[in-house]
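Input record, target 12 of the design panel.
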């Protein structure tokens, strides 16, 4: 029996675990990946808006987080697959056959990039699929590329690629780009970027690597193929709630609904970080929410022990 089990070792989970340990709670953190850090592994730009601390990228910030975590006393299990979870009973079954029990649970499972779910998307991973313009653009210098999406991330990546690529085709399913005005205004005079709105990529094509994309325009009768050597997909993210989506209240987008204390619709089950914060998914917000959940749990358990 643990006081708290935390699922997910991104910024929210790490902050929650750190505070749980600080407050004297018996804490176990579960992470399915080999390494802690969550979305920090996908932050390639400089981090300049975390109050009091700057970092070149997510990896450097994670190094600083890890130094604090290393001195904490909570248990951390990585490469741990959860088979099932019963939130009301606070019971977790692992793929290994082990069963865990706690008084409280903190869900810090984060988000994952949305996928197109089209032919070639998975097959060409590492073979022309661009992870990030900041990280990968020199690998695609001199090549024609396609960026899919219409928000800030898609447009910003298109602009970065346009600095080194002859042509960048930006494909967006909506009538207008959703990106901030300053990003869109920078697109207009950029002759390297072509924008297709009301269009979708229906297939990614190639032999050993990406060679073309198939595009269907709303005003077209059939798809056409565009030769490219790289494809970057930025169509947003979706919350990792598959394990427990039938057990608690979610908003229409599938994010966990929480109170001001980070508590979900199930008593003593809390959620922190991007999985419960679609409006302001920031590192600062995640660490603050993790700390809030930990402090509320500590106060509740202490009250129970005093009066129990």
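The sequence produced for target 12 reads:
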């Amino acid at each position: 029996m643990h006081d708290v089990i935390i699922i997910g070792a991104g910024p929210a989970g790490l902050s929650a675990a750190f505070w749980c340990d600080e407050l004297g709670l018996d804490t176990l953190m579960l992470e399915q990946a080999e390494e802690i850090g969550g979305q920090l592994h996908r932050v390639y730009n400089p981090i300049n808006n975390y109050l009091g601390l700057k970092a070149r990228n997510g990896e450097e910030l994670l190094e600083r987080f890890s130094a604090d975590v290393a001195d904490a006393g909570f248990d951390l299990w990585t490469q741990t697959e959860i088979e099932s979870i019963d939130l009301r009973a606070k019971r977790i079954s692992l793929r290994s056959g082990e069963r865990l029990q706690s008084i409280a649970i903190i869900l810090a499972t984060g988000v994952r990039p949305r996928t197109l779910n089209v032919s070639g998307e998975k097959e060409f991973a590492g073979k022309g699929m661009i992870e990030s313009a900041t990280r990968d653009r020199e690998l695609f210098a001199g090549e024609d590329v396609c960026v899919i999406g219409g928000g800030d991330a898609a447009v910003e990546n298109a602009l970065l690629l346009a600095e080194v690529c002859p042509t960048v085709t930006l494909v967006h399913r909506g009538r207008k780009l959703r990106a901030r005005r300053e990003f869109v205004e920078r697109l207009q005079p950029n002759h390297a970027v072509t924008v297709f709105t009301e269009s979708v990529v229906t297939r990614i094509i190639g032999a050993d690597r990406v060679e073309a994309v198939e595009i269907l325009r709303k005003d077209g009768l059939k798809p056409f193929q565009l030769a490219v050597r790289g494809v970057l997909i930025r169509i947003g993210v979706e919350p990792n709630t598959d394990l427990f989506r039938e057990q608690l209240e979610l908003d229409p987008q599938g994010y966990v609904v929480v109170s001001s204390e980070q508590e979900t619709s199930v008593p003593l089950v809390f959620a922190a970080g991007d999985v419960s914060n679609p409006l302001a998914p920031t590192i600062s917000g995640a660490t603050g929410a993790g700390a809030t959940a930990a402090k509320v749990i500590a106060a509740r358990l202490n009250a129970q022990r005093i009066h129990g």
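The chain has two domains: 2-113+237-307, 133-233.
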